[in-house]
Amino acid sequence: MWVWCGVLFSALLFLGGTGFAGRAGARESIFTRESLYYRVSIKGLSLGEQILRVVGETTYEGHPVYCIRTELRSYPAISLLFRYREEGLLYLDKEGIFPRYSLREVKEQDRERREETFFYPEKGEVIHRVTDKGEKTERTYSLPEAPCQDNLSLVYYLRTRPWERGEKTFFFLTVNGPVEVEYSYLGQEKVETPLRRFITDKIDDPVSRITVWFAKDEKGYPVKISVGQNIGTIRSILVKIE
Question: What pTM value is reported for the model?
Answer without folding.
Answer: 0.84
